[in-house]
What does this fold into?
Amino acid sequence: MMKRAYIIALVMISQLGFAQNVKFGKISKEELQEKEYVDDKAANAAILYSDRVTYYALSTNGTQLVTEVHKRIKIYNKDGFKYATQQISLFKTRNDKENVSKLKAYTYNLEGDKIVETKLEKDQIFHNEISYNFKGVSFTMPNLHEGSVIEFKYTITSPFIWNIDEFKFQSDIPIKQLVAELRTPKDFDFKATQKGFLSFYSRPGNAYNDMKSVIYELNNIPALKEESYVDNMNNYRAGVMFELVSIIIPGVVHRTYAQTWSDVAKTIGSSEDYKKELDKTNSFDDELDGLLGEGGSQVEKMKRIFKYVKDNITWNGIDGKYFFNGIRKTLKEKKGNVGDINLTLVAMLRYAGIKANPVVISTKDNIIPMFPTVDRLNYVVAYARIDDEVYFLDATDEFSDINILPIKDYNWRGVYIDNPNSRWDLIDLKQPKKAVDQYMLNASLNPDGSIEGNLKTRCSNHSALKFRESYKDKDLETFVADREGALDNIEISEYNASNTDSYEGLVSESFNFYYENGASVIANDVFINPFMFFKLEENPFKSEERKFPIDFGAPFQNRYLINIKIPDGYQLKSQPEPVSMAIPKGIGKFLYKPKVTGNMIQLMVNFEINDAIIGPDNYLFLKEFFNQMIIKESEQIVLTKV
Amino acid sequence: MLKKMLVWMCLVIHFNGISQDVSYSSFTIPPELTKNANAVVRLNSTKVSINGQRDMSIVINRVVTVLNENGNRVIQAGSGYDKYVKIKKIEAIVYDKSGEEIKKFKKKDFIDHSAVDGGTLYSDSRVLFMGYTPVSYPYTVAFSCEVSSPNTAAIPSWKAISNYYVGVEKDVFHVQDIAGLGLTKKEKNLSALGDQIKLTDSNNSLHYEVEHIKALKPEDLSPSFSSIMPKVLFATEKFHYNGVDGVAKNWQEYGDWINQKLLKGRDEVSDETRIEIEALVAGVEGSIEKAKLIYNYVQENLRYISVQVGIGGIQPISAIEVDRLKYGDCKGLTNYTQALLKIAGVKSYYSIVEAGKTIVDFEDDFPTLAQGNHIILCIPDEAKNRNVWVDCTSQIHPFGFIGDFTDDRKVLVIKEGASEIVKTSKYKDNINHQISNAMIELKEDSSINSKLVITSKGIQYDNKFYIENESDKDIKEYYKEHWGYVNNLDISDYSFDNDLENVVFTEKLNVSATNYASKIGDRMLFVINTFNRNKFVPDRYRNRKLPFKIQRGYLDEDSFEIKIPDGYEVEAIPESVSLTNKYGEYSLEFQKSENVIFYKRKLLIKNGSYPKEEYKEYRLFRKSVVNNDNLKLVLKKTI
It folds into this structure.
């Protein structure tokens, strides 16, 4: 899964050539006269200058983490006005809170030949208590016009000194010039993790007073633009995350944090939760013993435990790699975070004598951690090994199964934490098996062009999971109506779906249908598309180019076997050629095989995508593959009246 | 937008002192109430006591059994509050399916959160709500809450059926006007409840009670939920809102109250702006011409920002303040524009509207603060004896064009001593007109090359004029999505003309696509309608329950000239199609001259409301439109 790392071609960013110091309030006429952003004429606004310095400061309240922000933004047109509204989010707890101070902001306009500045007044700065943990300070700039330049600066003082916010280097508008600096005590060693698809480097800043500094200077950063079929855009936003790896205070303390993945695993493994809590089996009740007492193989026991945890503990929607409640409370309250559920699962598997360990991961909605990190990992799943077979389990999701984890879990590799055997390592997750849909259609064509028949479908793995989720989400009548709409407005009767409540095995559905406009009758000829309502109408890939990988979630295969009976008195005039095509490297395959024998049309279609994630270098192949498939799928068989 | 505390008050449900013989077990729900239901309201009791002009208490007891995940939102264990509205008591108890208590929430356990949405810069509205993760279904929540509010102008309404997929075992609503402020009511759609409703109307008190309502399911094209569901609005003649007293028996008096208490004296602007406006309209004749210049001035120089300050979010920021900041919300911008118009000697009226794509009218005879969420400006055009409506929050709409956000609905126009309910402009079916003309050349390699001109007016203008401001990439993507059924579409050239004066948007495009036709031996097959295929077929219902409504009609007229490749001929020209019924018209005509096929299409959809029995017929009409839009033509090689 580290694939992603090389899938993204890194784009070099200019980092040279500005020594100019941008001073607050020194706005040039050129900036005000600027009509568009040279490198991205579609930009509605641009950040002309962004400066951020984060450093440690000693004050009477102890050590504080201070961040000074200075931004200058050019507004090109009305669609860019929204960048004149800013919200600063401040974190707080019961005892401590972040504060913002020294907020100054001006709007600059060119009136005739004169630069006119308008100050943001204090009464136009709004303080919103958003929730228990967040406060927002918001403002919007006065006297704003097309062409205005706005500039603001403020200082955030934070008592949460170990949480350095991500340095974000990319916005949805271009940034002309960016400077970011982190100053830390010499004895604190922070590891910087870069993310995104821009390539940049840092340089050391001036060191003084036992402080050291790292500076990032970037020029002409392109805007980050959304693309479809991307799991999480933030994974591709350029930036740096900082994480403490060691503190060396001579003669006093020496603590070393994670530097390699093995360190990461050890660090997590040596936490109380993984060392002690995982073996607290005294709260396991008779019910569990009963389940295990039924005997059977270890695989059967694993399945029973998995089901027991799924049935008895509900996920509260919160991620986490550590316990929130702990085993006892989780079992008592019957709910918990991801850690509570999957670590309890590990504990129960171990209790049953199965070799089981936690595997810590980062989900798709989190980040892709390309470099060792403890803090950025947000999730844990269970791992079991029985007779050399490896199993991954996540009991938080209603329809997930053993080795069929929720799609968000398949983001990256996993940190394997095997305390009993002192093995701490990075491992690959078992990739999702192909989700196979099989369609069996038997129908007959009527002389008026309508088609009636029966369809039987079977879905496996992630396709079954998806089916179950959408089936559960709606009442049957709505579900069937939606199905009718999705299948070119056929009319469905005798609808039946089975095995939808379980999370194991295949889902199957069966129904009769009436397809009014199944074929076109033109003069003496009947034009029938044998692929009927299955044909793909639109190419999902319309853009000319692609920057980010395409995420299909899991590999999949759709197989169709279609039989259509032709009415008496018609004979074949022409039929489409069979075709077989593939995307290089086995990424995708398409097979289309029509056959007309006697009064029977038979069509076999097979369509498969074998990689869950496809790199942008293969985008054009994929696009053309879909295109050729659409062309083939729209071809007709011509019958003529004898 | 006006702040609507009322919404939250309705959500707030009560529980208080009264002994309840409500069962918390999910086993005792009558089975017919769980059919199609995500949740069943076991009891919803609201008791409103109006103790004085500035003193109202609302007590809510609400017991909801949630049957599945989708039913969680029905619980509504929460209440809004701010510096005027106070939560006296709030509590919730969660029971498992057999009625055993699992968890209890006291006031301090409720989550306190700002009620602002992302788009609002500031608002002091807040909300307390219960944060609970269910561990299994069904489960039951008994919620009780007591709110004290000075805002007698915002008496909660009674809505027995809160949403689709909700069954109701019992709902009781009681309002008592202890202070004798002159309680009145407006009942809507109560007949839908049939015999199930019991009501008593005694001295200064109103009581509604309903039992046993089955869950409803949403259906395509049904009128808006709130317009067909039973509902009772309440008001008192004397009232109070966030620090301001009022008296009103009718809209005229109500309008006077708004005018005097909230608007008056807020129309000063700076001298510079005054001089600028005077210069702008100097020498211009006619109030509408002047208004147009001023509207453009506002669009050029100001922008919309939502800030809910002032008297509980219902008073505009003063014009002088807006002048300084160059931004405002709908109230502030409308009041400011009105102030500028006044300088130019143009009369205009601040008007309150319920905005949104769904048309919602003000009640003709029932003034309350609960109606309306947006402000527009009414400018009388005396020369033509009509009203011109403008939305001062839009930076792009042409003067006098309000689009589908505030069209065709009754609004309150505030005029000193003469406030009244007036209907805004309606965009009738054939005004929402799109004309497409295309020359399409089909080539032997199955590709097409075409030149298109599309003009759009009315609501169809509103639906697309914004694209001219999009980036090149987004414009091309818009068309690729718009004609998604044409595979491999390429827009080689486009230009737009946005005629603000006549409100007409013209698109000129060069479009090509490969593999448009499919080849079968010596034939070519393609769908004749390349650029305006209608794909809309409403869902089929075995047993339709709700009436249906076509809120806005439209007219599409297309004429395509298709040049076929040399060496091919048309095998059979399709017959023309003509469908006319009360819902609209559809026609297709085909003509052939040498190697060109002329395709003429017309689709008129009329607005209107119809009973559920006719739904099937309308659906069939739409289905035959879709089928006919997919008509294929066969070409045959001649050599």
Notes: The domain at 435-641 of chain A is CATH 2.60.120.1130 (Jelly Rolls).
